């Protein structure tokens, strides 16, 4: 028993020692985490002499009116930046360059009429953004591109009237668009003069549903049907008919041969009746193209269909076609993949190269002892002359010994050589054939 008690006591001392070491380590970390706070009413510009290892910076209740470019460039370890209750009216889009470790940015209680949403790209780890009690009058649609990592967004006590549809798609993604675990967010939208439309109604209804990814700081949202009318609760605005669009394509994958015609169709439902847009992403370049001249029709309220006709398909038409439906309650789209198959044929055969024939040299340039090559077959004109001579001889009924003897050109040359061996001059004259074969035949007949 004593040994067990001693062992237990030893364990307790060990745990206390570890706990004390953990406390010392935390104290060291906290001592390194520097906090700089400035609340002097006389400060009118962002100080530039802040230590580089500052982790948390608070500039509150000063006369700072603008945040210049790269105002915190040397504070690469900064994690918390509070610029609350100052007189800030403008922020440069590049004010937060090099703040890659920043987790929290608070700008509550200033005079901002707009915010540089694109500047959030310089703070990839930012999760908390506070814009409470400013003078923001609008939220641009492109703000949703820079808010995917923001889990705490306070837009309360501003002058906002319309909520972009793109923010609804970001905060309430459809089941098919969720890229993994649903990210929960805390939103502050109260104390704004909202218009009673489908956007604010959808935010209210979806945030109250079971398992909603959005939690509102205050669910008492007030809206007006128009700027001149009195305010009412969003739940009493009678916007229960609002429905986000749903897209159903006729086919999700189409394979068509080269040169054929294809019609792509999609149907959409939603309230208000959604509008349809076709977006094509090329399979080769990856560029997106919007198709404007498409056919679409709404047979009844809440339903719309659209078709796009592609005639004489080429390989450039292959790619992904997205049918996008949009209304005041949200955006939805469905892809259709088009594949073009086929082999391109040659329209005509390649031309044959003409064979070059050597030019005939004229007879006056020949050497004295050079003779022309005899031809074994008579030409067409020679055959015609032979056919004309034979009938004429038959009609005259001449004696056999008086019949003319007709020889081809090659035999004619040999016979003339034999008969004229005695005369050397005649041999030279007959070494070259007559220039005209017709004259040669007639001269042989008269011998």
Structural commentary:
- The structure is a single chain.
- The chain is an alpha/beta fold.
- Helix content is 21%, strand content 25%.
- It contains 7 helices and 22 strands.
- The protein has an 8-stranded parallel beta sheet with strand order 1-2-4-6-7-8-9-11.
Task: Give me a quick take on this structure.
The chain is 21% helix and 25% strand. It has 447 residues and is of the alpha/beta class.
Q: What is the secondary structure topology, with strand pairs?
A:
Elements: H1 2-32, E1 34-38, E2 54-59, E3 66-67, E4 80-82, E5 90-91, E6 104-106, E7 128-130, E8 152-154, H2 165-171, E9 185-188, E10 194-195, H3 198-207, E11 214-216, E12 222-224, E13 232-233, E14 243-249, E15 253-257, E16 262-271, E17 275-282, E18 288-291, E19 295-300, E20 303-310, E21 319-327, E22 330-341, H4 380-396, H5 409-419, H6 424-430, H7 437-445
Parallel strand pairs: 1-2, 2-4, 3-5, 4-6, 6-7, 7-8, 8-9, 9-11, 10-12, 15-22
Antiparallel strand pairs: 12-13, 14-16, 16-20, 17-18, 17-21, 19-20, 21-22
């Amino acid at each position: 028993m004593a040994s067990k008690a001693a062992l237990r006591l030893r364990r307790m001392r060990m745990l206390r020692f570890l706990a004390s070491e953990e406390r010392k380590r935390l104290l060291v970390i906290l001592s390194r985490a520097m906090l700089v706070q400035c609340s002097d009413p006389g400060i009118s510009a962002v100080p530039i002499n802040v230590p580089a290892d500052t982790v948390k910076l608070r500039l509150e209740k000063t006369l700072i009116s603008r945040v210049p470019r790269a105002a915190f460039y040397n504070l690469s370890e900064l994690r918390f930046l509070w610029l609350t209750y100052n007189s800030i009216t403008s922020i440069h889009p590049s004010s937060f360059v090099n703040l890659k470790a920043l987790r929290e940015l608070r700008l509550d209680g200033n005079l901002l009429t707009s915010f540089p949403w694109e500047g959030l790209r310089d703070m990839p780890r930012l999760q908390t953004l506070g814009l409470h009690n400013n003078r923001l009058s609008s939220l641009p649609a492109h703000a949703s591109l820079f808010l995917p990592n923001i889990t705490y967004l306070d837009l309360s006590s501003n002058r906002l009237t319309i909520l972009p549809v793109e923010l609804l798609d970001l905060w309430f993604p459809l089941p098919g668009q969720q890229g993994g675990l649903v990210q929960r967010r805390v939103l502050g939208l109260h104390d704004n003069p909202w218009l009673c439309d489908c956007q604010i109604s959808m935010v209210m209804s979806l945030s109250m549903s079971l398992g909603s990814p959005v939690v509102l700081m205050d669910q008492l949202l007030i809206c007006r049907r128009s700027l001149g009318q009195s305010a009412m609760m969003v739940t009493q605005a009678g916007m229960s008919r609002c429905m986000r669009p749903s897209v159903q394509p006729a086919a999700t994958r189409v394979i068509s041969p080269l040169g054929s015609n294809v019609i792509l169709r999609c149907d959409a439902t939603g309230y208000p009746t959604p509008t349809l847009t076709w977006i094509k992403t090329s399979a080769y370049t990856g560029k997106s193209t919007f198709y404007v001249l498409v056919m679409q029709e709404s047979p009844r309220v809440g339903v719309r269909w659209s078709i796009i006709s592609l005639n004489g398909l080429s390989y450039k038409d292959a790619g992904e076609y997205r049918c996008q439906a949009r209304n005041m309650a949200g955006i939805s789209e469905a892809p259709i993949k088009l594949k073009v198959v086929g082999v391109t044929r040659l329209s005509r055969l390649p031309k044959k190269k003409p064979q070059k024939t050597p030019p005939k040299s004229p007879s006056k340039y020949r050497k004295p002892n050079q003779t022309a090559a005899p031809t074994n077959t008579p030409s067409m004109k020679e055959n015609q002359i032979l056919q004309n001579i034979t009938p004429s001889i038959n009609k005259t009924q001449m004696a056999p010994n008086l019949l003319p003897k007709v020889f081809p050109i090659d035999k004619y040359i040999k016979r003339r050589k034999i008969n004229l061996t005695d005369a050397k001059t005649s041999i030279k004259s007959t070494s070259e054939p007559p220039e005209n074969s017709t004259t040669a035949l007639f001269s042989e007949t008269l011998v």
